[in-house]
Write a structure and sequence with these properties.
This is Polyprenol monophosphomannose synthase. Keywords: Glycosyltransferase, Transferase. Belongs to the glycosyltransferase 2 family. The protein is an alpha/beta fold. It has a single domain, classed as Spore Coat Polysaccharide Biosynthesis Protein SpsA, Chain A (Alpha-Beta Complex), CATH 3.90.550. It has 8 helices and 9 strands. The strands form 2 sheets. The protein has a 7-stranded mixed sheet with strand order 3-2-1-4-7-5-8, sandwiched between helices. Strand 2, helix 2 and strand 3 form a beta-alpha-beta unit. Helix 7 runs parallel beside helix 8. The longest helix is centred in the last third of the chain and has 19 residues. The chain starts with a strand and ends in a 6-residue tail after the last helix. The mean pLDDT is 93. The structure holds guanosine-5'-diphosphate-alpha-D-mannose. The site of guanosine-5'-diphosphate-alpha-D-mannose has 24 residues, from strand 1, strand 2 and helix 3. The site of guanosine-5'-diphosphate-alpha-D-mannose (GDD) has 24 residues, from strand 1, strand 2 and helix 3.
Amino acid sequence: MSNGIIIIPTYNEIENIERLVRNIFSLQRKFHILVVDDNSPDGTAEMVTSLQTEFFGSLFLEKRAEKLGLGTAYIHGFKWALKRNYEYIIEMDADFSHNPNDLIRLYNTCARDGADIAIGSRYVTGVNVVNWPMSRVLLSWLASKYVRLVTGMSIHDTTAGFVCYKRKVLEEINLDKIHFVGYAFQIEMKFKAYLLNFKIKEIPVIFTDRTKGVSKMSGGIISEAVFGVINMKFKSLFNKISK
Ligand SMILES: Nc1nc2c(ncn2[C@@H]2O[C@H](COP(=O)(O)OP(=O)(O)O[C@H]3O[C@H](CO)[C@@H](O)[C@H](O)[C@@H]3O)[C@@H](O)[C@H]2O)c(=O)[nH]1
């Protein structure tokens, strides 16, 4: 039994998932993996099912009926993990934007260095993003600045999706009261952890854009974040936010 689980949300990641799973299982530290797939038409879930024979007891799959958003996929995965004995619960994209070799550093920041949340951060030391078009780098960097300004959090990479949580953080945040369904979910989780005074550490990582498959970023995801963050801060000022 491993005390750490990597949760990977997937939508149409057939070109990445097998290589990523094999890569994670070849690391020196042993983690379990949970894939939360939203009925990807490209057969991502079927690929995971076929790998489960080889990685029996270490690779898990939760299949949802339709594409319901990155945020709700993670909430689903968190609840699944909390029902089991995992002490460290890690979020990661399926497309190799997050380097699997950084997983151990992320894990150790919580397991050895006393953090409650460890964030694999692109913006601690300048901008560590490879192969994103300039427009996307600017959008992400400005989004992080905007969130810092509005919320008052001192985190550099507020939209990061490469995060290790200690179990107690996910037990204390009310997962049923997370409102955002898209990437803004990442901001909301960090904000709630910040309001609860959890110890948050950022470790620098290099984010490399995917070479296979496509991003699921959309206009709806952006506007959810832009307007949602102000609303979230406003509610917290009047103590109306549920942690
Ligand atoms: N199950 C499920 N998975 C999804 C969904 N939407 C996206 N995903 C999965 O979530 C991961 C990230 O999605 P991408 O579409 O590849 O994200 P990105 O554009 O590269 O965005 C990155 O930057 C964002 C902003 O900084 C980050 O918030 C995000 O986590 C990610 O690192 C991938 O594994 C993708 O398959 C969904 O609706 N359902």
